[in-house]
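Protein: Pyrroline-5-carboxylate reductase
Species: Chryseobacterium geocarposphaerae
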Amino acid sequence: MKIAILGAGNMGLSFSKSFLKYELIKPENLHLIIRNDSKFSKISEEFPKSKISTFDEVTDLDADLIIIAVKPQDFQHVAENFKFQLKENQMVLSIMAGIKIEKIQTLLHHPLVVRAMPNSPTLLGMGITGYTAAEGISFSQLINIERLLNSTGRSVYLENEELLDGVTALSGSGPAYFYYIVDAMIKAGVEMGIEENLSKLFVKQTMLGAYHLMNNSEKSLEELIKDVASKGGTTEAALKTFDENSCKEILKKGILNAEQRAKELNG
Ligand SMILES: NC(=O)C1=CN([C@@H]2O[C@H](COP(=O)(O)OP(=O)(O)OC[C@H]3O[C@@H](n4cnc5c(N)ncnc54)[C@H](OP(=O)(O)O)[C@@H]3O)[C@@H](O)[C@H]2O)C=CC1
Ligand SMILES: O=C(O)[C@@H]1CCC=N1
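Structure follows.
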Protein backbone atom coordinates (compact mmCIF):
# COMPACT_ATOMS: atom_id res chain seq x y z
CA MET A 1 0.00 0.00 0.00
CA LYS A 2 1.19 3.51 -0.82
CA ILE A 3 0.18 6.36 1.48
CA ALA A 4 0.43 10.11 0.96
CA ILE A 5 0.11 12.46 3.91
CA LEU A 6 -1.15 15.87 2.91
CA GLY A 7 -0.03 18.16 5.74
CA ALA A 8 2.97 16.75 7.59
CA GLY A 9 2.31 18.53 10.90
CA ASN A 10 1.82 17.06 14.38
CA MET A 11 -0.86 14.54 13.47
CA GLY A 12 0.33 13.73 9.95
CA LEU A 13 3.77 12.86 11.30
CA SER A 14 2.35 10.91 14.28
CA PHE A 15 0.36 8.76 11.87
CA SER A 16 3.39 8.30 9.63
CA LYS A 17 5.54 7.17 12.54
CA SER A 18 2.94 4.63 13.67
CA PHE A 19 2.55 3.14 10.20
CA LEU A 20 6.30 2.70 9.89
CA LYS A 21 6.79 1.48 13.45
CA TYR A 22 4.26 -1.31 12.98
CA GLU A 23 5.59 -1.98 9.45
CA LEU A 24 2.18 -1.43 7.89
CA ILE A 25 3.91 0.26 4.98
CA LYS A 26 7.46 0.45 3.69
CA PRO A 27 9.14 3.85 4.18
CA GLU A 28 9.58 4.08 0.38
CA ASN A 29 5.79 3.88 0.05
CA LEU A 30 5.19 6.89 2.29
CA HIS A 31 4.91 10.29 0.61
CA LEU A 32 4.89 13.33 2.88
CA ILE A 33 3.50 16.51 1.36
CA ILE A 34 4.51 19.74 3.05
CA ARG A 35 3.38 23.32 2.47
CA ASN A 36 6.81 24.72 1.64
CA ASP A 37 10.51 23.90 1.91
CA SER A 38 11.01 25.31 5.42
CA LYS A 39 10.60 21.96 7.22
CA PHE A 40 12.13 19.80 4.48
CA SER A 41 15.48 19.05 6.14
CA LYS A 42 13.97 18.30 9.57
CA ILE A 43 11.37 15.95 8.12
CA SER A 44 13.82 14.25 5.77
CA GLU A 45 16.11 13.54 8.75
CA GLU A 46 13.21 11.77 10.46
CA PHE A 47 11.98 10.01 7.31
CA PRO A 48 15.15 9.45 5.27
CA LYS A 49 13.69 6.78 2.96
CA SER A 50 10.32 8.42 2.31
CA LYS A 51 9.38 10.80 -0.46
CA ILE A 52 8.89 14.40 0.60
CA SER A 53 7.41 17.02 -1.71
CA THR A 54 6.01 20.48 -1.39
CA PHE A 55 2.34 20.83 -2.23
CA ASP A 56 3.04 22.78 -5.43
CA GLU A 57 5.42 20.10 -6.74
CA VAL A 58 2.80 17.33 -6.73
CA THR A 59 1.36 17.03 -10.21
CA ASP A 60 0.63 13.32 -10.06
CA LEU A 61 -0.10 11.49 -6.82
CA ASP A 62 0.82 7.81 -6.80
CA ALA A 63 -0.91 6.66 -3.59
CA ASP A 64 -3.66 4.23 -2.64
CA LEU A 65 -4.59 6.34 0.38
CA ILE A 66 -4.32 10.09 0.82
CA ILE A 67 -4.54 11.28 4.41
CA ILE A 68 -5.66 14.88 4.72
CA ALA A 69 -4.05 16.30 7.83
CA VAL A 70 -4.05 20.04 7.16
CA LYS A 71 -6.00 22.41 9.42
CA PRO A 72 -9.71 22.63 8.58
CA GLN A 73 -9.24 26.34 7.81
CA ASP A 74 -6.62 25.47 5.16
CA PHE A 75 -8.65 22.77 3.48
CA GLN A 76 -10.59 24.86 0.97
CA HIS A 77 -7.43 26.53 -0.29
CA VAL A 78 -5.69 23.15 -0.50
CA ALA A 79 -8.59 21.50 -2.33
CA GLU A 80 -8.88 24.34 -4.83
CA ASN A 81 -5.18 24.28 -5.61
CA PHE A 82 -4.57 20.59 -6.26
CA LYS A 83 -2.31 20.28 -9.30
CA PHE A 84 -3.13 16.58 -9.49
CA GLN A 85 -6.32 14.70 -10.25
CA LEU A 86 -7.55 12.09 -7.77
CA LYS A 87 -7.83 8.70 -9.43
CA GLU A 88 -11.01 6.66 -9.27
CA ASN A 89 -9.69 4.00 -6.85
CA GLN A 90 -7.79 6.31 -4.48
CA MET A 91 -9.13 6.52 -0.93
CA VAL A 92 -9.15 9.75 1.05
CA LEU A 93 -8.90 9.70 4.85
CA SER A 94 -9.57 13.03 6.50
CA ILE A 95 -8.62 13.69 10.10
CA MET A 96 -9.69 17.35 9.96
CA ALA A 97 -11.97 18.55 12.75
CA GLY A 98 -15.45 19.51 11.70
CA ILE A 99 -15.24 19.16 7.91
CA LYS A 100 -18.03 16.88 6.80
CA ILE A 101 -17.66 14.05 4.31
CA GLU A 102 -20.03 15.75 1.88
CA LYS A 103 -17.95 18.91 1.82
CA ILE A 104 -14.74 16.93 1.29
CA GLN A 105 -16.36 14.97 -1.56
CA THR A 106 -17.62 18.17 -3.17
CA LEU A 107 -14.36 20.09 -2.93
CA LEU A 108 -12.26 17.14 -4.06
CA HIS A 109 -14.76 15.91 -6.67
CA HIS A 110 -14.18 12.43 -5.25
CA PRO A 111 -16.58 9.98 -3.56
CA LEU A 112 -14.26 7.69 -1.57
CA VAL A 113 -13.88 9.58 1.70
CA VAL A 114 -13.42 8.24 5.23
CA ARG A 115 -13.57 10.79 8.03
CA ALA A 116 -11.74 10.11 11.29
CA MET A 117 -11.05 11.93 14.52
CA PRO A 118 -7.90 10.73 16.30
CA ASN A 119 -6.16 12.35 19.27
CA SER A 120 -2.61 13.27 20.18
CA PRO A 121 -1.67 10.08 22.11
CA THR A 122 -1.62 8.42 18.66
CA LEU A 123 2.06 9.36 18.81
CA LEU A 124 2.54 6.62 21.44
CA GLY A 125 0.10 4.17 19.88
CA MET A 126 -2.27 5.05 22.74
CA GLY A 127 -4.76 7.19 20.87
CA ILE A 128 -8.42 6.66 20.20
CA THR A 129 -10.03 7.39 16.85
CA GLY A 130 -13.68 7.62 15.93
CA TYR A 131 -14.34 7.19 12.22
CA THR A 132 -17.08 6.93 9.67
CA ALA A 133 -17.21 6.40 5.93
CA ALA A 134 -19.01 7.69 2.88
CA GLU A 135 -21.57 5.43 1.27
CA GLY A 136 -20.09 3.14 -1.35
CA ILE A 137 -16.94 2.31 0.56
CA SER A 138 -16.63 -1.45 0.82
CA PHE A 139 -16.13 -3.45 4.00
CA SER A 140 -12.66 -4.56 2.87
CA GLN A 141 -11.60 -0.96 2.09
CA LEU A 142 -12.79 0.04 5.56
CA ILE A 143 -10.94 -2.85 7.22
CA ASN A 144 -7.72 -1.71 5.53
CA ILE A 145 -8.18 1.75 6.98
CA GLU A 146 -9.08 0.38 10.40
CA ARG A 147 -5.87 -1.65 10.42
CA LEU A 148 -3.90 1.57 9.89
CA LEU A 149 -5.89 3.45 12.53
CA ASN A 150 -5.33 0.63 15.02
CA SER A 151 -1.58 1.13 14.74
CA THR A 152 -2.18 4.48 16.45
CA GLY A 153 -4.29 3.07 19.29
CA ARG A 154 -7.92 2.01 19.41
CA SER A 155 -10.58 2.85 16.86
CA VAL A 156 -14.35 2.93 16.90
CA TYR A 157 -16.57 2.94 13.80
CA LEU A 158 -19.55 5.29 14.07
CA GLU A 159 -22.53 4.89 11.79
CA ASN A 160 -23.69 8.45 12.43
CA GLU A 161 -21.31 11.13 11.13
CA GLU A 162 -22.94 13.78 13.35
CA LEU A 163 -21.39 12.09 16.39
CA LEU A 164 -17.88 12.80 15.12
CA ASP A 165 -18.17 16.43 16.25
CA GLY A 166 -18.91 15.14 19.75
CA VAL A 167 -15.96 12.74 19.51
CA THR A 168 -13.80 15.69 18.42
CA ALA A 169 -14.89 17.64 21.51
CA LEU A 170 -14.46 14.65 23.81
CA SER A 171 -11.40 12.65 22.82
CA GLY A 172 -9.91 14.81 20.02
CA SER A 173 -9.55 17.81 22.30
CA GLY A 174 -9.64 15.72 25.49
CA PRO A 175 -5.89 15.45 26.11
CA ALA A 176 -5.75 19.25 26.43
CA TYR A 177 -8.46 19.23 29.14
CA PHE A 178 -6.47 16.65 31.05
CA TYR A 179 -3.27 18.72 30.83
CA TYR A 180 -5.26 21.78 31.94
CA ILE A 181 -6.41 20.03 35.13
CA VAL A 182 -2.96 18.56 35.75
CA ASP A 183 -1.46 22.04 35.34
CA ALA A 184 -3.89 23.55 37.87
CA MET A 185 -2.99 20.82 40.37
CA ILE A 186 0.76 21.31 39.87
CA LYS A 187 0.38 25.07 40.33
CA ALA A 188 -1.61 24.52 43.54
CA GLY A 189 1.24 22.31 44.77
CA VAL A 190 3.77 25.06 44.06
CA GLU A 191 1.58 27.61 45.86
CA MET A 192 1.58 25.33 48.91
CA GLY A 193 5.40 25.40 48.91
CA ILE A 194 6.12 22.12 47.10
CA GLU A 195 8.99 22.37 44.63
CA GLU A 196 7.69 22.31 41.02
CA ASN A 197 9.42 19.08 40.00
CA LEU A 198 8.15 17.34 43.09
CA SER A 199 4.66 18.75 42.56
CA LYS A 200 4.72 17.38 38.98
CA LEU A 201 5.75 13.96 40.26
CA PHE A 202 3.00 13.86 42.89
CA VAL A 203 0.34 14.97 40.42
CA LYS A 204 1.36 12.77 37.46
CA GLN A 205 1.69 9.64 39.60
CA THR A 206 -1.69 10.44 41.20
CA MET A 207 -3.33 10.71 37.78
CA LEU A 208 -1.69 7.47 36.63
CA GLY A 209 -2.67 5.58 39.78
CA ALA A 210 -6.22 6.97 39.79
CA TYR A 211 -6.62 6.06 36.10
CA HIS A 212 -5.65 2.45 36.76
CA LEU A 213 -7.81 2.24 39.88
CA MET A 214 -10.79 3.57 37.92
CA ASN A 215 -10.11 1.07 35.13
CA ASN A 216 -9.71 -1.91 37.44
CA SER A 217 -12.60 -1.20 39.76
CA GLU A 218 -16.20 -2.34 39.65
CA LYS A 219 -17.16 0.82 41.50
CA SER A 220 -18.85 3.83 39.91
CA LEU A 221 -17.00 7.14 39.73
CA GLU A 222 -19.26 8.45 42.50
CA GLU A 223 -18.28 5.55 44.75
CA LEU A 224 -14.61 6.02 43.96
CA ILE A 225 -14.91 9.67 44.92
CA LYS A 226 -16.64 8.70 48.17
CA ASP A 227 -13.79 6.28 48.96
CA VAL A 228 -11.36 9.20 48.90
CA ALA A 229 -13.54 11.87 50.50
CA SER A 230 -13.66 11.14 54.23
CA LYS A 231 -16.52 12.82 56.08
CA GLY A 232 -15.40 16.24 57.27
CA GLY A 233 -12.01 15.74 55.62
CA THR A 234 -9.77 17.47 53.08
CA THR A 235 -11.18 16.03 49.85
CA GLU A 236 -14.68 17.03 50.90
CA ALA A 237 -13.44 20.59 51.41
CA ALA A 238 -11.98 20.67 47.88
CA LEU A 239 -15.08 19.12 46.28
CA LYS A 240 -17.32 21.63 48.10
CA THR A 241 -15.39 24.49 46.48
CA PHE A 242 -15.59 22.79 43.07
CA ASP A 243 -19.37 22.33 43.40
CA GLU A 244 -19.95 25.85 44.72
CA ASN A 245 -18.17 27.11 41.59
CA SER A 246 -20.02 24.73 39.26
CA CYS A 247 -16.73 23.22 38.06
CA LYS A 248 -18.37 20.16 36.51
CA GLU A 249 -20.94 22.29 34.72
CA ILE A 250 -18.23 24.60 33.40
CA LEU A 251 -16.21 21.65 32.09
CA LYS A 252 -19.29 20.24 30.39
CA LYS A 253 -20.10 23.65 28.93
CA GLY A 254 -16.58 23.93 27.52
CA ILE A 255 -16.82 20.52 25.89
CA LEU A 256 -20.18 21.37 24.31
CA ASN A 257 -18.62 24.59 23.04
CA ALA A 258 -15.86 22.53 21.40
CA GLU A 259 -18.55 20.46 19.67
CA GLN A 260 -20.21 23.67 18.48
CA ARG A 261 -16.87 24.93 17.13
CA ALA A 262 -16.40 21.67 15.21
CA LYS A 263 -19.76 22.28 13.54
CA GLU A 264 -18.78 25.87 12.67
CA LEU A 265 -15.54 24.67 11.07
CA ASN A 266 -17.57 23.02 8.32
CA GLY A 267 -18.48 26.55 7.24
N1 LIG B 1 -3.57 18.24 17.12
C1 LIG B 1 -4.44 17.32 17.51
O1 LIG B 1 -4.40 16.83 18.66
C2 LIG B 1 -5.48 16.84 16.55
C3 LIG B 1 -5.65 17.40 15.31
N2 LIG B 1 -6.59 16.92 14.46
C4 LIG B 1 -6.75 17.49 13.12
O2 LIG B 1 -5.57 17.19 12.43
C5 LIG B 1 -5.29 18.21 11.49
C6 LIG B 1 -3.86 18.66 11.67
O3 LIG B 1 -3.70 19.16 12.96
P1 LIG B 1 -2.24 19.36 13.56
O4 LIG B 1 -1.36 18.26 13.10
O5 LIG B 1 -2.41 19.61 15.00
O6 LIG B 1 -1.84 20.71 12.84
P2 LIG B 1 -0.42 21.17 12.28
O7 LIG B 1 -0.51 22.63 12.06
O8 LIG B 1 0.67 20.64 13.13
O9 LIG B 1 -0.37 20.41 10.88
C7 LIG B 1 -0.97 20.87 9.73
C8 LIG B 1 0.07 20.85 8.67
O10 LIG B 1 -0.52 21.14 7.41
C9 LIG B 1 0.43 21.86 6.68
N3 LIG B 1 -0.16 22.52 5.53
C10 LIG B 1 -0.92 23.63 5.46
N4 LIG B 1 -1.23 23.91 4.19
C11 LIG B 1 -0.66 22.95 3.43
C12 LIG B 1 -0.58 22.70 2.04
N5 LIG B 1 -1.16 23.49 1.16
N6 LIG B 1 0.10 21.60 1.62
C13 LIG B 1 0.71 20.79 2.47
N7 LIG B 1 0.69 20.98 3.81
C14 LIG B 1 0.02 22.05 4.28
C15 LIG B 1 1.03 22.81 7.68
O11 LIG B 1 2.25 23.32 7.21
P3 LIG B 1 2.95 24.58 7.92
O12 LIG B 1 3.43 24.10 9.23
O13 LIG B 1 4.04 24.92 6.98
O14 LIG B 1 1.91 25.63 8.04
C16 LIG B 1 1.19 21.88 8.88
O15 LIG B 1 2.42 21.21 8.86
C17 LIG B 1 -6.29 19.33 11.72
O16 LIG B 1 -7.24 19.31 10.73
C18 LIG B 1 -6.92 18.99 13.08
O17 LIG B 1 -8.27 19.35 13.14
C19 LIG B 1 -7.36 15.85 14.78
C20 LIG B 1 -7.24 15.26 15.99
C21 LIG B 1 -6.32 15.71 16.99
O1 LIG C 1 -8.30 21.77 18.44
C1 LIG C 1 -8.57 21.28 17.34
O2 LIG C 1 -9.31 21.90 16.54
C2 LIG C 1 -8.05 19.92 16.96
C3 LIG C 1 -9.14 18.92 16.79
C4 LIG C 1 -9.08 18.06 18.01
C5 LIG C 1 -7.81 18.41 18.63
N1 LIG C 1 -7.23 19.39 18.02
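Remarks: The longest helix spans residues 196-216.
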